[in-house]
Design a protein that fits this description.
Elements: H1 2-14, H2 19-27, H3 33-53, E1 55-56, E2 62-63, H4 67-77, H5 79-96, H6 104-121, H7 129-157, H8 163-166, H9 168-209, H10 225-241
Antiparallel strand pairs: 1-2
């Protein structure tokens, strides 16, 4: 039952005829000054949260809250800016505060996650927990469990990269051993964080959609009840002052 719901959400978000049109519209966000300013602010917020809230549990397990500005940016600007911002945040964060040797795989992780969130959230008139759960589950499986675990296994399991060319069997044996050793821990961490992130992301995205200031950035969104009430109150107040 759970698998059926999960794949139905993915199909709903990827099989519509306007998918590539939304990708194209997403790329056009870079040509809007107000969008660039908002992207810069959310990027700065993500970097700040990365410094303040990241908690390193083990070598391969880290808990953070950068997902919130990331998903907000992806909802506002779509998959292309989401991917670019993800890559930029990883690169800037590394050069400002290196935590080890640079590895491009983690930058790719951030870009893929931003693209996936943008595909799920951009230009959605209504965001319900099922949409959010589908996005988080996709990123968890594709990025966190598969991609990131692979990069960690290569980085810390295969010390000599020349083995992939000279003795590929030994290299892949080291990779598989490291992958198996850390997968269970990462699976547990992501299983714990998934419901927490689900509640947090639902709250953040809903709250942002209720703020009239952010309405111009949310394309194709219906004005919410609170937003309508705010605008009507402001309009009526202006009439009364006249």
């Amino acid at each position: 039952m759970t698998e059926t719901v999960f794949f139905s959400v993915i199909a709903t978000n990827t099989s519509k005829g306007d998918f590539f049109m939304r990708i194209k519209e997403s790329a056009k966000e870079f040509g809007k000054t107000k969008s660039l300013v908002a992207m810069a602010m959310l990027l700065a917020l993500r970097l700040a949260l990365g410094y303040v809230t990241n908690i390193q549990i083990t070598e391969s397990i880290k808990i953070g809250f950068t997902i919130f500005p990331t998903t907000i940016a992806c909802m506002m600007f779509g998959p292309i800016p989401g991917a670019v911002m993800g890559g930029a945040a990883d690169l800037i964060g590394f050069f400002l505060k290196p935590t080890g040797p640079f590895f491009p795989g983690y930058t790719l992780d951030s870009m893929v996650a931003g693209f996936i969130y943008g595909c799920f959230f951009y230009r959605k008139k209504h965001l319900n927990p099922l949409h959010v759960a589908g996005a988080l589950a996709t990123v968890t499986v594709v990025v966190n469990l598969c991609m990131t675990t692979s990069w960690i296994s290569i980085q810390y399991g295969v010390r000599d990269f020349s083995l992939f060319f000279n003795d590929s069997a030994a290299a892949w044996e080291s990779f598989a051993a490291k992958f198996s050793a850390i997968f269970a821990g990462r699976f547990l961490k992501n299983a714990i964080m998934l419901p927490i992130n689900l509640v947090g992301v639902c709250f953040c995205l809903t709250a942002v959609r209720e703020i009239p200031l952010f309405r111009p950035f949310i394309n194709d969104g219906d004005v919410s009840t609170l937003g309508t009430l705010y605008l009507e109150t402001k309009k009526n107040r202006g009439k009364a002052e006249k």
